[in-house]
Amino acid sequence: MIANFAPLKSDHELWNGYRIPNMRVIKTNLSYDGKETIRIVYDTGVDTSVLWRETSGGNKIAFPMNEVGEFLVFKSRKHVVEVHIQTEVCSKGVCACGIIFRNGNEIYINNICNGVSRQGFIYIGNHEDGILDEEYNFDKYASVNNYYQALWNNKYWIPGITPEQHEIHESHTISLQNGVVISITRNFDTNSLELLIESKPYVESFDELDGIVSCRYKLFRHRDGSYAADYRGYINSWRVPTNESLRNPTNHMNFGVNETVYQCHCPQGTDTALADVMLRAYARNYYYYYYPNYETEHVLGAAMCSLQMPCLEQTNGQTWPYNTFVTAVIVSNVSIEHNNTHLMCLFNPVEGKKHRVQWYFDETIVLNHTINANSTVLSPVDIVPMSGSECNLDKEIRCSVTVFEANGVNQSGPSSFSEPVYLMRDEMRQSMVSNVCVINNTCYFEYDHDPLDQRYVCYPALDPFSWKRNLTLHRVPGDYCIPGEIQCESVPGVAFCKSKTKQCTCADTFEETNGACSQIGCTMAEQNDTCSSISFAICNDNVCSCASYAELNATHGKCDIKRIGSNCTSEVDCKHITGAACDYQKTNTCVCDRQFKFSNGKCAPKAPGDLCTPGGDDCDNIQGDAICSPKTKQCSCYDTWQVVGGKCQTISCTFSDPSPCKLISNGECRNGTCTCSIAAVLNTTTGECKSRGIGDTCYVDEACTFVKNAKCDSERNMCVCDDTRKLDGNACVPKEPGDACEPGSKNCQDISGEVFCDAVTEKCSCASTHTASNCACVQKRCTDDHGCGGIAHAKCLNNACTCSVTSELDITNGLCKSKGLGSFCLTDSECGLVTGAICDIAKPRVCVCGDKYEMNDAECILKQPGILYLNRVDIFVAQYIEHDEHFAIFRCDYSIDYGFFYQVKWYLHGEEIYSTDILDSPKASEASVLKDVELYNINATVFQFDSKLRCQVSAYNESGTFKLKTVESNEFVPMTISSTSITFSRGQSASFTVNLYVPFGCGTKSRDCQLQYLLHDPSDPYDCMDSTIAVLHGDTCGGRIEGSTKTDMETFALPKYETTITILAKNNNNYNLKRDFELKLRTFSDDNLKNLWQGFTITIEVHVTDDHLIQHSPCYSHVDPHMGTFDGRWYENQNSGEFILVRHKKYPIEVDMITQPCSNWGPIPTCACAVNVRAGGDIFTINHCSGHLTKYLSNKDQALKVYRESSSEYKIILPTGMSVNIYLMTWG
């Protein structure tokens, strides 16, 4: 039972409207559910009220209540409970007209005596409420309802009752404190009351009560404690005098009440208490067609009502009186048990007493046992001494036990009788006297012949009450037989023993002809008249026979539909059996197909855990994604799915709690479900998420991270080795000297030593000062300069060939070339080949013109002394690595002239943020440079989208006291975005571009160096049902850039990283859509952990327009099939074949359906029997055209999300947000 709670109403507004969750209430039954009942009703057969007592074993005793007055029905000795009944003379005999009961300190009356109706409480004691609560269930209803009006013209069959008098029947049910339940019914036909009393042995039984209910078979206990064997005077002995009547106000008083109630408690275990319950219902789909459905009833709590935790409630008052007569000595629990050889009378002996057991056939004593008996038996020989003797098998059998004093002479109390048994009831006859017939009150043994006609024999199994024709004689239709035996096989033709008549009967396709069974004749023209009346029969070769899909059952002579194990010759024979096929190559029987298993006589779809053959399609019919495990040879769900109710179901997770996916090797939480991580791919053979290898499909580089040094080839969409590696097996290993490369690329940069890509040979080659050795380029060994083989600008230093200090390696040809302006340096001497050049003390240290020179076409030209050349200022960015940390530097670049002082100021959006001191020319160069971290610490907002940075240089005279000139740079924007407000139609896409002008990189130890752009809606949970935005980019986060490598360092090249991001607005289920919302774009890197790279953020406004027509108009196909388009057009499609319902113009998304004739009537009408949905590399199908298939045919991209809404409805969400709803109908 489910308890539903209404919203709370209280004086405290905090709780107003709060609704307690649904709760399951569980009532427990004790192990003994037997009950005894007593009815007091008016019997029209004897024209008076009659008391019926029915024991827990189902046996009854009855006697008339023809006394007039008030009588005690029962009175409890333990509880303050008593019930009185009042009778009066009615039109015929005596009728019950009043019921009065006391339940604790409340007295209630229901009285119609003398034609006056009185009903209600006549006394309400202390601590009682006098309210008709759950203890008093009063129900009034009409005897018949309008449904029967068409069957009976006078539906109000009670004389004098008119249609306006609705309450023509009353029923009162009362639960008393001693556990006894009484029901009071008013019978308007006899104008009397009827009383039903129910008691269970584990509360107070009737034998423990005083009153007329304390009667048993031949055991009537009178009010004075005496016993009688019949009911004469019994009712009158329980007459209630006026001074004891509950109607007498002097008896309306309080008694001390001790009432035990029980507490509700939590169920032990929650498997059944909190389990969901599936309720069958019928739902209506979009087109108002009803189809079977299931609804789930959820509960969040449960309470159990049992008898485990008692509580005692006490009320003070007078002591409850009851009869105190001496109880007679009577044995208890007298019963008869039987086995295959005898009956046994069992009872509980009274200690110190002797007992006599007697056996009765009806009222006749047939067997006496000694006074010392503790248990006695009655064997079949006592009942049937010999064949042909008088038979008592059809009589009621009881045993009685009488208690005697120890002397064995004086009787201690009345006899106590058992419940009766009947030997001729099948269960006892078949076990004890299965070899006896009872014919004309005479017993005969099995196979005895009729003394009057020897052709007839006693066959108890066939009929234990009459003679039957000898079964050994030749049978003809109509002869008796024993069901399950072979007597009817002697009948010519095909006959069987009919279980109902126990006669030989011709099979359905045969008819009786001259004592034989012959096949019924027919012609093809008349087969509908002759054979159609026979189930599953057809006319074949001019006789009626079972159809090919049926077989003749010799046990009951009918054509039965073939089942598993039936003979077959073709697939047609077994086609009607769901999941079956004909094994005509081996056993020629109907067997379960590969995708099914034999269970309970049927072919049930295989479920996870069932045996299968690896590599086959045994598990394809399991809902969800399942495979046949090569290890266990059992159907198993993919690792990213779980078994739920014999099916495979996705594992739910959330971004805040991805723990359900942690047990899946290579698994992760994405879009609200567990799936293979981006660097893994589903192995459809094993069901595991295997690490992607070289050659596996990919769309982003992250998909290939399980192969070290691999990337995703965007043109071929497959994992390949990155540019600096080559393939060796399934591993990407470093390139070696001599491996292929692309001139001008970085293919060779990871080869140890000085290496370059030769433009002529297009191979990785060692520099002129190096030679190939052990997959690396090592310096050539030498003792002097001649040992370097005349390499230009080469020297022998420390016994190794190297470029001279004034030269550097040219990475385009591997030769040593003279250092020039911009070349890396540590000392001024390294720049000596360029007149006027020095090594800049500001990092990165490169050769620059000294302050007395200015650069002109890679040369340093001597300036004229005393002239200020400050004409232009630029912001210049560069990068370098120091102590394995990447730095981006910002240089305020200008001409520094000897003899002048300079001051540099930095501005952000026109506001000054930093200023240097006024410094002389030798110190000015270093002061004009700021590292990225220094600039971030000065003002973190420098590193934001569209921030505007300027630098300003002021020149002072030779003493630094007078400002001569000020020049300002143009604006420098570290990162730009093409647009921060985007408008487009739903379902369409829009793009924007992000440009980064600050060099990004990582330390030399970082193998993968990336800066990611994260684009998201802060209010969006990002699961497939509710997401409002999809990012269409190779990286689903929004985009990324690769960090600088070592060959990019130490240069003055101005970097520019450009990334384009495309977004698509989605339908987030039921068009609960956002139209105007904001997206957040930010940067993130887990390789370079500087705060500045985590801090770029910007808000993008999105405005989505909707086409109202598309939003509210579906495209559909249903039944036979009726078609409807998005723009509201409809038409019929009575063609068989495969048809495209929807195909996206831009993306690989398509919905198809397959139609075929609905029945064997002809080519039309046609019905849709399959739907296929495709998105990218995913294909999901529901196909009932030939067999039953519901599964992913491919799930490479995991772009389709399939939800089973009910037993007959599926919802599929496409990546664009469009939903496909599929209803499975049992017709049409």
Automatic annotation (TrEMBL):
InterPro entries in UniProt: VWF_type-D
Question: PROSITE patterns in the record, alphabetically?
Answer: VWFD
Residue span(s) of domain VWFD: 1113-1228
Q: What is this protein called?
A: VWFD domain-containing protein
